[in-house]
Amino acid sequence: MILLVSDLHLEPERPDIVRAFLHLLETRARGAEALYILGDLFEAWIGDDAMGPFEREIATALRQLADSGTAIYLMHGNRDFLIGKAFCRRAGCRLLPDRHIADFHRQRVLLMHGDTLCTRDEGYQKLRRILRNPLTLFVLRHLPLTSRQKLARKLRSESRQQTRAKAMDITDVTEAEVEREMQAAQMTTLIHGHTHRPATHELQMSGQAAQRIVLGDWDSRGWVLEATPAGLTQRHFALDER
Known about the structure:
Blueprint lengths: L1 E4 L9 H12 L7 E5 L14 H15 L3 E5 L9 H7 L2 E3 L3 E5 L2 E6 L9 H10 L2 H9 L2 H21 L9 H11 L3 E4 L6 E7 L2 E7 L7 E7 L2 E7 L5
Parallel strand pairs: 1-2, 2-3, 3-4, 6-7, 7-9
Antiparallel strand pairs: 1-10, 5-6, 8-9, 10-11
Helix pairs in contact: 2-3
C-alpha cells in the first residue's frame, strides 16, 4: 500500500492536526511501501536554519517512519517551498520536483502540488514566478532570520485576504492547463492538492478515459489517498480518530 497526503499546513496553533498526523505516521503509515506528501506539509517554512522544537519533532517522527522501512517523498507546496536538504536529511525523506511521475502497482500517475494548474489566478502566478526564481531563492535564504519571519507573516496575511476576495473559479484549476500537463506527461491519472477541493474528476483525454484526483486538506478532518493493486481510494477521518 502507498499513502498520499497534501495540505496539512502543520503549525503549533493546530495541535489537533499535528496529533492526527503523528498518529498516522505511527499507525497506518507503518508497513506502507511509501508515503507521498504533495506539498504544504507546513503552514509556513522560512528556511531549514529556522527549525525549532516543533519542526524537529515532525522531522524526528518522519525519520522514525523512514527507519521502519517506509519510503517518504516530499514535494514543495506554495507555503513551504523553502524546505531544503537539511530538513530532508533530518526527516529521512526525498524531495521531489513538481511534476513527478510515479508507478503505483503498475499504474503510472502524474503527481503535482497543483498550484501551477490555477492559471486564472494571475496575481498568484506572477508572485510564484518571482519567489521561485533561483536568484530570489538565493536572496531569501540569505536574509536574516528576523527579516524572513516578517516577510512570511506579511505574505500569509496578504494571501488570506486575497483568497477571500477571489472568486471560487479563479482559485481552482484551469481545465485546459490540466489537459496540457497530462498530455505532456502522457499520463491518464493526475493526483494533486492545493485547491482544498477533494474529489475525483473523470476526464476524456484524446478519447481515452482519464482521471484527476484532488487530495483533501487537513482542517476539519484528515484525508489520505490509498494506492493498492485494487486501485486508488481517498478516505477522510476525524482528526481525533484513534
